[in-house]
Each structure stands twice: as structure tokens, then as C-alpha cells.
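Work Package 3 (structural annotation) set out to generate three-dimensional models for the target panel prioritized at the project kickoff. During this period the team completed the workflow that converts sequence records into C-alpha cells, so that structures can be stored uniformly alongside our sequence database. As a representative example, we reproduce one entry of 395 residues exactly as it appears in the project archive.
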Amino acid sequence: MLSVKEAQNKVLDFDYKPEKGRLDISKALGFVFSDNIFSPADMPAEDIAALDGYALRAVDIKGADRNYPIRLKVYRKETSDVLEPFIEPGFCTPIFEGAPIPRGCDCVVPGEATESGKKDILIYDEYESNQNIVQRGEDVKKGKMIFPSGRRIYPKDIGILGQMGIYDIEVYLPPRVAIVTVYPKSTPRPAKPDSRGLMLSGLLTATGAGCRSYSVRYEDGKAVKAKIAKIKEGCDFLAITGSKFIGEYAFLNDVMLEMDLELGFWKVNQDPGRNLAFLTGNNKAVFCIGGNLTMLLICFEVYLRPLLLKMMQRKDLFSNKVNARAVEHIRNKRGKTSLVTVCLEKKQGVYYFKPLACGMLSSIKSADGIAFISEDTIGLHPGEVAEVLKFDKNM
């Protein structure tokens, strides 16, 4: 029987080959760049003002100070002007941050460093050529790589792409995800969706991958195999859930192993969630998870979520791991890893955790994460440290 770490490694060794596609940047949030993105032009495309003030020639205010201010005439652009005017020596013109530098000017004096009149201004400090000017290409040179392949796309990235004039990009498309809830033939068709399928659908959707949900009645192995096989062909990631028998070998043997799938593992040396199965084949990953909501939540966080994020080309598979101290004694059966739902509290930069009762709805509601109690120990004493997998805040 595999350990938790061995089972995790087996899952993450699955070599999924993602598809690529082009998306409008307005729809690309949360996706991952599949190609490097290079700037198509210099940014800015021309010299611009770094602040509000007056554009002028630096040589015209050489030597200016508080005791010897220099007076310049103010040129104000007329609405009838078609071309950008040339600013003559001895003149200046008002300018706003980000505006192109007028011809004839080579620096910008901030407005607060001047004393304005109706037709002229006094300047009390000298400024160097190119001072307070962002030169063409100073921010980004044409051809410079802006975003590398494999980077997740954030809201600010979409604004940067738009500023550079890039409105459609190539991304890794997320895997097609499906959930199958299997209920036994002794149970009448439920009027409403099963709670396990509902929770799994929410957990999968929270990762950013949409999913389709199906219900299948287990009448006999051949019939249910045909239905699940059809669903499997239309997805890349399949999670099968239901009552406890889903994780039993009889279900695997009668249904799943007849579908051209290779069994990665069946059973993990953990509690709860021992009867977990993982299968792969034809660029598809399949999980079979039976049991209650607590078991489903734990298996999702430890196995399903990391693999799905990897299939989406994400790098942050386990970025929510923390070390935390137990606040009370926790028992464990030596030789088996206990995965315990816990509530977390942070005090003076240190995380503390308290175990919650397994299988209780109130415990699921209050849970902040899962503590890993090593198979090498019979438990933890107060103050001892364990690794805790924090739940995503969107859960």
C-alpha cells in the first residue's frame, strides 16, 4: 500500500499534454501563457512628460535660482493648430504627465517650481536636459520579453497587454473536467443532486476549471461501464464519487479496468480516504472516491486539486502549506498517516491548530485545513509541529 507521499508523487507524475488556443485578453484571466510575450513596440512610443508642469529648453533656464528667477513666455496651443507646434527659445508650454514632449523642448519643470502669470512664468531652479522626461523605449524596448511562457495571467497583466496593443494571446486551455456520481440500484433515482457531487463540483470550479456533472445508476457492471466510458471520452479529468462501494476493488474490476485505463494505485495508507483509486490512459486522469464529505474534501485537497492545477500548467500546487503547532493531544495509529481536518489560528506569526471531529457537517463548515499526522508517530503532544494544508480562501 502506498504512503501519502508516494501516492501524491504517483498522481503528479501523470504526464498530461495540454491543448493550446487563442483567447481575447478580456477572457484570459486565470489562464496560463503558452508562449513568451514580446513587446511589439517601444514603450513609450515617444518621449513623454514624467509629471505635470511646463515643457521648455533646459538652456533657457541655465543658472536660475531663488535670487535670480528666469522669466519665460507661455505658449498655449490653439484649438485650430493642426500640427504640434515648435516651441521657440524663450518660450515654454503647459504639459500634463504622459503627454508627448513638444518639438523644441528637452526638459519638464514641475508646476510647483514656478510662479505663473497671465502670459509668462518665473522659474526658480535650473533643470538639466532630459530631466523629468521618460524617453522613448525607456520603460520597455521593442522585442523585450514581457511575460514568459508558463506564467499565470493576472488582472494587471491584461491592462499591460492592452497598453501594448496585444488583444489576443495564446494560452494553455484548461482540461475538460467531469464528475460522475454513482448511486446503487437499490436506491431510487434521487430527486435532487447528491451532496458529494455538489461539493466536488464546487471544489473543482473554485480552481478555475469548469466541470460537467452526471448521475449514473449502478444497475450492473456492463451498463454503468458503458455510461461512464462515454462520459470519459469527452473529458480529460474525471472524478467518480458516490457511496463507499466506489472505492472498493469490485467496482474497479467490474467497471473501470475494462476501459483501457491503467491502474496507478488503489488504496493509500491514510485515514480517512484509504480506498482511493487513481487511473490514467489516453491523456486522461481518473479518480474514484467513495465515502462521506470529509473523505471527499481531504482527497480533493491532497490529490485532485494539485493534479488539476498542474494540468492547467499552474506552478502553485502546494503554495498553501504551513507548519502549525497542536493545541491539544492528537492520537494516531502508528503505521498510518492521519489526515485531520483542523481549525487554524495565527498568533504572533505562529500558526496553531485544533482537530475537528471527522464526518461532522459542523466540522467541515469550520475547517481551515488538513493536518498531516505522520505514520511514524502515535500522535502529537500540545506544542508539537505538523504540516497543515490550508484551504483556499474561496472554499
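Residues 53 and 110 are 4 Å apart (CA to CA).
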